[in-house]
Predict the 3D structure of the following.
Amino acid sequence: MRYEAPRTLKAALALLSGANGHARILAGGTDLLIGMRAGHVIPELLVDVKGIPEMTSIVAKNGGFRLGAAVSCMELIEHKAFAKAWPGVIDGIKLIGSIQVKGRATLGGNLCNASPAADSVPAMIAAEALVSIAGPNGKREARVEDIAIGPGKTSLAKGEIITSFLLPRRLPHSGGAYLRFTPRTEMDIAVVGAGVNLTLDKSGRCLQARVSLGAVADRALLVPEAAAALIGSRVDAAALENLAAAASAACRPIDDKRGTKEFRIKVAGVMARRAAEIALARARGKN
Amino acid sequence: MPDTITPGEKKLRVVGTRPVRPDGVPKVTGLARFGADYSLPGMLWGKILRSPHAHARIRSIDTSQALALPGVKAVMTAADLPEQKFEYVGPERTAANFWHMTRGIMAREKVLFEGHAVAAVAAISKMVADEALRLIKVDYEVLPHVIDVEQAMQPDAPLLFEDMITRGVEPAPDKPSNISKRIEFKIGDIEAGFAAADKIVENTYRTKPVHQGYIEPQACLARFDADGQAELWASSQGHFVIRALTSRLVGMEVGNLRVYPAEIGGGFGGKNVPYVEPVALVLSRKSGHPVKIVLSRDEVFRACGPAAGSVMTVKIGITKDGKIVAADGVFTFQAGAFPTSPVMNACMCGFTPYDIANVRSVGYDVVSNRPKTAAYRAPGSPISAYAVESTMDMAAASIGMDPLQFRLKNVAKPGTQTVWGPKHTHEGFAETIRALMQNPAYSTPLGKNQGRGVAVGYWFNNGGESSANVHVNEDGTVLVATGSSDLSGTRASMALMAAETLGIDYDKVRAIVADTGSIGFCGISAGSRTTFATGIAVVQACRKVIDELRARAAMIWDAKVEDVVWEDGCAKRAGKGPGEVETLPIKAIAAKRTVTGGPISAEVSVNAGGVAPGFAAEFCDVEVDPETGAVKVLRFVAAQDVGRAIHPALVEGQIQGGVAQGIGWALNEEYIYDDAGRLANPGFLDYRIPVASDLPKIEAVLVEVPNPNHPFGAKGVGEANIVPSLAAVSNAVSRAIGRRMTELPMSPPKVLRALDPQRGS
Amino acid sequence: MAKQHVAATINGDAVEFLCETHQTLLDVLRDELGLTGTKEGCGTGDCGACSVTIDGRLVCSCLVLGVEAKGKSIQTIEGMAAGAELHPLQRKFLEHAGLQCGICTPGILIAARSLLERNPDPTEEEIRLWLAGNLCRCTGYNKIVDAVLDAAREMRRK
Amino acid sequence: MSEAPARVVFTSDFSDRYTGGVKEFEIEAKNLRGVIKALDELCPGLGEHLEEETTVAIDGEVQDVGYYQAIRPGCEIFFIPKIEGG
């Protein structure tokens, strides 16, 4: 097994396209190393991207943020301006494993590992985040919800790397939140996750909203029907109930060791409603 | 029998204080050496090949390619272990059968569970060893398997042992089954008892197997020399017992094996028996090199005994004023792949907190395609207590009586007969319940979706064989050596008891754990026996040393030994003038050791009896999220009769630790199997032991009703604390949601289903 | 397979070692460098027994490759005491009986120090959340939390 | 002092296996060695089972089976399963 730590994106892309055998990108490694230990993944080349400046920096520009895909979760959590602007995204990032794991884990890894239960993904989808992708055929952008296409599968072409995430400037009176359900308070995998992002007009009516659910299908879902339940409403009890119903209706879960179908469908609505309540409070400038 | 110091009598100087433990500093600096931390020059790494199937016949094993791989120095299979006679020997409770035990170490005719060891290799690196395992070809004939205990009892269930006839049934069944044994304990006349009852409460309960969850995987280092002598560095709960079992399994004389106690990273019963030691020894014998084996967490979960799962039915008859008149329990335990779960303990402990004239406990021990169960903290008792205490809670509620009042009204006292015959002789049960009732938190009001649950629990505690050596060093400091593995600070309690007995300061005593070549036999550190039994040996050795010190002082003074007393670490005798006292401190006597007869030391070996049982009473408050079924434990108060707390901080730690394990057992811990009989959650991510943020403060209430048979009144403290915890949590959840929970773990989906008005239990 | 040459700083000392590409930092520390104070409880980042800091960042050394240590500064439990003088956290763990078997203790001490570097005055809840990645099966965490609170108190006074 | 014999009691489980169901015996002996000897004469082989498999409660006090345990006339002796813990 070869290990390379290129200093430039160009060099990284060259290594990946040049690799004849099985090459893997090493960012935080919190999933890759476990797979290697278990013998599920046996790469011939590891390309460590943590030495590439544009993948390891956080840049604030005209109100938005560009987050390097290899920035560790702890760096994002400790970045005051970002945490203040996107508390809902931070909610999701904070739930990715222990402090130790967050010291290594990255947004890029959490997305490309393509686990339906990844905690940052519904939060990023709700936030309408974009990803910048570099590959043998140049650069492109994509929506976060279009990357994972099934458990462990992504839409990325061979040799492509997600270099960064883009979060737009926020409109006034916007708020977001991510909540998940797990049996333990920490150190657990989401049984259900719900990310909600909404914007109010001056009168307090919901102008726009995005709702995303995790761990209830083969990948994180964007649920427009759930968002529709909020848009135009004052996000009152009735709207929240409709949101919950729409969220539950959108679930296509499985029974597994972490939860039952029946449980996931019920709790998806509960998580979406509670996340919306927090998002609403944040949009109104409370906490 | 050693005399007791009862409260009010002689004031204790050091027993009951909270000094830093002798092994403390190396454990906070990373220098303490645990099982995996030992190495030797030329050492090889051993790795074990395990069965991917839950149940299969082994047609053949081809190790030739593995052996041919460069860097591989030895390969072993069960053929390298001597066959053992089929007979159940030793205590009925453990019913050791070496024919089973050797097959547990390495499969012979069949693999009986996923993860069952089938072969092992020793190589120059972990990587080469892993590669070698991939080269071993095992030809399996896959057989139908059975995981669940109730399915395993069905007449058409796949048989693990085609010739197993249930023991304890007269006349013996003519057909084989997976039911290894039936046991029954009975007093009085239960039919008459139930006939006299105003109310009868009955329910059936199920629990899942759970793992002890020690953070240190099994690990050892073995060196087997050409002359047949061997040394073993292992982390275990008893290096003498590891020596006894390992030498028998490997086929060597006990005297040829010396076992050194590594620091042990948690055991809780799971390290009473060997798993890797015989394998490492054989690989070392075959390779001629030292061999180290360190299990992975995955292997620990798949192959190292968890606690039994169960299905239990308990029936209780009470009068309208709350007197229990009859109790009947049927406790069916999963033994795992080989016979003998702790179901006998379950039968013996379940109803023992109570004074009931008519009681029957029936137990079934059932094998299925899971790893053989091992002991886990008060083995068996928390499981039957869960069923009994849940039913007691229903009984108390059915007559609107406070659940602690109900227990106090029926609590066993000296003179109460146990279901297995003898009468209780020790106080402490009622005192412990009263202490809990008086806890101010017990009367605090509860909020919405909250519930308070109580339970009590009994554990035998244990005595038995222990040895201690006390040596007065040249400068008057004292060395205390015992053969008891120190799981959680017993070196500190030994040093405290020695310092108290000798009348010297704690920091003048150094307590160590000696290897099997350096001290007499000591039983395992299990059954809450160490501070009691080994403590008695230490105190008796100190008393011998005191007699010797008096004799030496008499020689120095040219006096009669009868005229010399021992007080406050000094020899004393009446001086010339009236009221005058001459003293010789231990330091001065040690300085004169050579001219007075040489080194001053004493070794004492005992078989300690007069054990007093452990008893705990606990309550907890929970809040249930009605929309998700999530349970939050808000408060936990645990009262335990500890006899006397030798080192109170360590005793509190035992109680808090036992309760934390009980909470995990009650809420989230379980073995989950897929349809192929493979464990689906063999890691700490999906086998959910409580993390720091899951738990509340756990308040430990130390109740001290001394045991007159221990010099300082100590009773065992390690185990009784976990016995009521499962039931306390279950009773709290049941009261919070107004529905009786009858299955552990009470994971959120189960609680949410119970809350569903349509389908609630 | 050619081994990788790595130069790093461990507990303040310049260290060089050779390792296989797949070898974790944990295996390098324990098997190549003899620093066995860092423990393996799971090898999958779920127990925290192998906690170390890399350039001041708390991580599980079982989830880091040895080769990734190139040019990094690593702190392990062996470097926590200042010579013969124990770190306040080490002393408070002893005073409060914050350990029983002791296998999780090195990882918890490293994690707790990392918390106090960022938050010198943590609440009990903050401590429990920060330490959620460090499993302890003996203590029920009570005395661990007490020890960290007390150490923080003492360190703030200094 | 009275020469009342000691009352020896087995669990039903144990008596079913080794004494043909007889649960109680009256034995005169000074110590446990004498009790075990007498029982072994009544049920050959029983002695070894008692020594290997049981703990004894003499008037309620639980002791390991030891020859030296003194037996008071008229006392109650229960042979019970040996306990092992976690």
Q: What stands out?
A: The longest strand of chain B covers residues 324-336. Confidence is low (pLDDT under 50) at residues 1-8 of chain B. Chain B touches chain A through 22 residues (CB under 8 Å). The radius of gyration of chain B is 27 Å.
